[in-house]
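User: I'm writing a tutorial on reading structure tokens. Could you give me a worked example: one chain, its sequence, then its tokens, then a sentence or two explaining what the tokens reveal?
Assistant: Sure. Here is the example chain.
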Amino acid sequence: MAEDIKSTHITWHHGDVTRADRERLNGHKAVVVWFTGLSGSGKSTLALAVESKLFERGCRSYVLDGDNVRHGLNKNLGFSPTDRTENIRRIGEVANLFIQAGVMALTAFISPYRADRDAARKIAGADFVEVYVKCALDVCEARDTKGLYKKARAGEVKEFTGISAPYEEPLEPELVVDTAVETLEESTEKVLAYLAQRGVI
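And here are its predicted structure tokens:
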């Protein structure tokens, strides 16, 4: 499908302060850490834990959470495949603005479609780290932290990922954490160790 571009006669304005300048000031690189997984897998919990550890190290980062973003920027989007794609497209662009500002963007979105995650990766380029927050469906459903699985099973929530809508697992994520068997601390340390290995922090 061709992209519907309505903005015309526009010019990109380059500032005097570069991303490299901001990264030098911050003392670390900027990346998009994209946490993907089923509802209840622990994406937001893990992203927030990583953010806290980065803050303790003096690193600038910010969590873009799926539910939080739908309270404002994406409040006009539902959960149809088309709306999900637009949801992720917008977040991919916002996350890229964060890394251009020298800040690590930690995104916690189900982002069920590989094509949408690949599109977000294309925006950020080499600075995209996909973290598959793996967790068996029965474990996520047993947790049912928001009561959504119960509602989905009862037909009260339509197009719910894992029940009435698909989730396409990452094929080649940079990192996999299994929150069904790992503690939050173990998963957090795996993410931090990976960022250190890549020279981000």
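What the tokens reveal: The mean pLDDT is 94. Residues 81-100 form the longest helix (20 residues).
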